[in-house]
Fold:
Amino acid sequence: MSGNTLGKNLTVTIFGESHGPAVGAVIDGLPSGLKIDMDFLLDQMKKRKASGKISTARQEADLPEFVSGLKDGYTEGTPLTLIIRNENVRRDDYAATMNKPRPSHADYSGHIRYGGFEDASGGGHFSARLTAPLTAAGAIAMQMLKEKGILIGTHIRKLHHIEERPFSEEHLKEDIELVNSRLFAVLEAASEEKMKALIEEAAAKKDSVGGILETAVYGLEAGIGEPMFDTLEGVLAKALFAVPAVKGVQFGSGFAFADMYGSQANDPFAVKDGAVQTLSNHNGGINGGISNGMPIRFETVIKPTPSIGRKQATVDLETMTNTEIEIRGRHDPAVIHRARAVIDAVTALAVADLLMEKYGRAGFEEGHI
Amino acid sequence: MSGNTLGKNLTVTIFGESHGPAVGAVIDGLPSGLKIDMDFLLDQMKKRKASGKISTARQEADLPEFVSGLKDGYTEGTPLTLIIRNENVRRDDYAATMNKPRPSHADYSGHIRYGGFEDASGGGHFSARLTAPLTAAGAIAMQMLKEKGILIGTHIRKLHHIEERPFSEEHLKEDIELVNSRLFAVLEAASEEKMKALIEEAAAKKDSVGGILETAVYGLEAGIGEPMFDTLEGVLAKALFAVPAVKGVQFGSGFAFADMYGSQANDPFAVKDGAVQTLSNHNGGINGGISNGMPIRFETVIKPTPSIGRKQATVDLETMTNTEIEIRGRHDPAVIHRARAVIDAVTALAVADLLMEKYGRAGFEEGHI
Amino acid sequence: MSGNTLGKNLTVTIFGESHGPAVGAVIDGLPSGLKIDMDFLLDQMKKRKASGKISTARQEADLPEFVSGLKDGYTEGTPLTLIIRNENVRRDDYAATMNKPRPSHADYSGHIRYGGFEDASGGGHFSARLTAPLTAAGAIAMQMLKEKGILIGTHIRKLHHIEERPFSEEHLKEDIELVNSRLFAVLEAASEEKMKALIEEAAAKKDSVGGILETAVYGLEAGIGEPMFDTLEGVLAKALFAVPAVKGVQFGSGFAFADMYGSQANDPFAVKDGAVQTLSNHNGGINGGISNGMPIRFETVIKPTPSIGRKQATVDLETMTNTEIEIRGRHDPAVIHRARAVIDAVTALAVADLLMEKYGRAGFEEGHI
Amino acid sequence: MSGNTLGKNLTVTIFGESHGPAVGAVIDGLPSGLKIDMDFLLDQMKKRKASGKISTARQEADLPEFVSGLKDGYTEGTPLTLIIRNENVRRDDYAATMNKPRPSHADYSGHIRYGGFEDASGGGHFSARLTAPLTAAGAIAMQMLKEKGILIGTHIRKLHHIEERPFSEEHLKEDIELVNSRLFAVLEAASEEKMKALIEEAAAKKDSVGGILETAVYGLEAGIGEPMFDTLEGVLAKALFAVPAVKGVQFGSGFAFADMYGSQANDPFAVKDGAVQTLSNHNGGINGGISNGMPIRFETVIKPTPSIGRKQATVDLETMTNTEIEIRGRHDPAVIHRARAVIDAVTALAVADLLMEKYGRAGFEEGHI
Structure:
């Protein structure tokens, strides 16, 4: 399988370029008979979409067309394909800068990878627009998991210097439901205002900001994960790094483990309500790459959007000389509030894939016939 | 492929249990005609091995036997299999604690995953001992890369509160060669003494410590990586999380990106020595999941070894009651100085795999016949 | 990867249902900078299409829309997606027979596999219509191979009792070019008339016929194939059995080997024109699963189309009683003359995939930048 | 995954060379808690082994050592590795003919594939000896299937001109049990004598013979297979072509379909004993690549062993001139009676793999804890 397919049992293949005819996804390995909750799917896509002053001016309907695998609202079990047309394509915005790679974008590395035949307009295959079909695919996986009592949620733990509290350990389910009810992914109402103000401020300075997203998976049974290599952490991490701008992933206490003694870091076991639990969750619900029944918890760092309006140093690839670039066109001063929906999507896809390793597709199809 | 195989073009399958007959690896997809540098391979294994007061008392020869794929010192191109016998097996040490999962170990999650049929002695399939064949496999990949001018090195950036300087940007090659010449992976001679003292101190307190490893890949050409999912970051991360105790991975500035503005985080391009380079390397040599020709840089966090001599709370899985555990047997107060060799190994395997995606095996076999 | 994706290096994912919105393909792993020969691609699709009296009355334009991966006629190296709309959909034809599986069709086995959620109209995901995007994908692979001097051709070796001569050993290239120049895949002009008459005769009797296709691959270098399991034979066979109605595959002398002594079956080696060749080709150009430099030769059997107009015994799946069925709607009295284009397609995909194992994508991209 | 690994859910990696230290297999994805029936496993290996006058003189104990994944006779769920030492290695037999490829062997194609670094002695990685660990792995899969009521059997339908009756449709289970109780795979007692006489006669003439094996899978439920590409036929065929000397595979009526009308070839459905069945089984239990609940039936052709004692024309690869070869050393005048065990093995592996696609590993682990 080549690089645009994720997963082993439940596979998602993503295709498209930002300014080509369409972007889309093929999802294979789906159980048949799953009634797609279209409202939920569109809601997830809405969370990912540009909106308000704080995001790019490009506004498209982004309604996916389902061209295969769906009949009367139910999955057929055959590949489900969805396509999102690119309606608002303006190649001209990019013509001038074609040979001047934007700093910290994929323009240059992609140019080398694809030999100059790539469609660089609007980021091409690297555009965040590719995350639209990925989010739709993830919404279907989220629905599969919800039927097993598994919830996924992500909030902005930190936007530049503005932090909010982490997910509660005791009321995690409620916290996930809270953040999932909001378009702007925060737990504390005050965070939204402050963060939006900061994003606008960055935009006004022709600059951009990043931050840290915290994600939790609630309700995943113990015993999921396939060491030595298809660990829960490894499979999640590979999927998470497909989300544009993600540059780091940490599980549980993550990099803070470096400052702890083993006696502080270990999570003691205890019997609670007749089940084995841990008294702390520094390990983010994962031991030895396998879920231990506690909530899965991890953080991803989203770098500041590389597209900024300021003049930047770059090179002219044709003449191989130094030059400058001022990026025009549409771009976001932050993507972190949109990335949350994509993080949820890939998390769901990774978890569903590993669950299918244990239960097969029949485990998601019971009572069909 | 199931969870114990890593890679697509160059695959490594790891097998074995700590107290079973043997551990080992099968490497498939190797170019034929590669003369294995056995001294180098054994040297990498030595770096991974327990040594001195600061590590476990278990001392084994760990000499791999090559049972297939190697003739007169050259790879045949058929699966190369190496086996390391477990000579010093003491199942009794573990008998008493069989049903008492050690906190933050894989005992419990593994018990659920493998249904009670796992060989829990000494960590079984989760033992760090499994990293011995992985290190040997990685040494072969490192050698393949070295012939392409690619060097990999890892040092202890931080052990608990003791830090040392990061890899130099200007003299990276020298730094890698320096750390690779040392059994204890530090750049500054003073670090070794301080860190070893801290490890012994932790051991004396029946405790353990963790830290942060910094890794660099020098000499990788631009254009390597297969977005959207088989990104250089994603493929590396998946491999890195197979290393026991790794709980986080960050590329370039990693989590520090959260505190930066885009104008600070971006890496401007410039022509230097006739080639495109970046003036800073916040992105760790990767844009859009593809190498940009700058050194690849990332950090992994190694949690404190969960095996500590102190009394800890746990459960009795048979009676489902709370109890306590005091771990006896052999264990390390730190594994970070050993993990460096495993990190190098999986890094090499991941990079070689992606390079073969571009060049095929013929790209590593030129001039054979 | 799930069942609708073929290949490892060059992957093709096929989606769609006969009477759904569209069928299509995503091709990943393509080299960038390949100028698609659209005339050739459409020509291959034309060969696959229904035509004349001897085929189904369903006539659609079948023009693929390229929605990603193609810019100015060149592959971008990103996933190439093509979609073919289903324009002439008549669900009503099938409504009456919904619960009565057609003998020797996939109706019943598919019903069990997909739990009753499948779109059974017109064969749904099992329709020969799915071979349209597969043929288009294969045409691109054929073009990649042609640039390496590799030609593929297939002719009707036998239609029911009408046989024609096999491919010539001496003039194989000319024979391939000859058959590829014809819409009806025969070497001898007289065969076409006789075979078409037989097909019409079968149609008149509300019956159908099958036959044997012979395929040759000319110009494939020695050394291609990845034993023990990804043999040239195994990889080809897996791809060939994806073609509807294929029930057997034989390489070289195939089942006739059973009647030979080793002394008759062996292909002696000889030096010819400075190269190693074999004096006979009973092995169809493959020894030990690896090409030996001689032409690859194999035959596939195409069973008679199961859709026949006669009354047939079947069951009513709702009442679980015996009943009868008379298939109306559109169907072919033979598919063998259309299957040839699909056989060529999957052959090209399989061979290109194995060639990329050796050469990587760079081997197909030389001289790009 | 590279070419020496078979399967997706249940994977088998085969390694080793005929005259290297050992051959072996790693099986990953096994359910935990399967009690290996060692008598059955050894019995399957015995069926594969050389025996009596009619086979090669090489006699080895071939007892597999289980070096991982097995504890107290039960699978642990971790990779199960078995190794078979090569005890009776005689490299000298082959030294003289090193550069003279044996006609119809893999010597030449393998030489090109592996660049001259292959271990050609005794066939090296192409030796039928590699089928010993494959047979052991398959025995484990056969056992998994047996617990689901699925039986597999193979008999010699035809040895050169000597045929015996096909498997009975009505008493298939009994026929499978009958042939599985015999070391020489025939249904009719008289066949054994006649066939053995023919093999000895061929040996006396320094020649060899081949034939056709018929295989049946009894008890496989309907709905197994993953079209469009991972069809039951395609997955089986790929596995079958890994068996040395197999040059063709046909399902059900196979190539005889070419002579039938659709009205003769179709298998009408009927309700029998409350279940859907077909009144004939021309399709060998498979429609649209998916099992239909009827027995799976297929035939494979085994070419005459290429190793014959007669003088044959070949080339000297060093001088690139024509020459002759007389093969000495150990070789079989027929392998078909040994191949039956390998055919059973790969059939079991393929079917178990597809069953796990539906049921996951949990489907084979029920009632564990």
In short: Chain B has a mean pLDDT of 93. The CA atoms of residues 150 and 220 of chain B lie 6 Å apart. Chain B touches chain C at residues 8-9, 356-363 (CB under 8 Å). The radius of gyration of chain B is 21 Å.
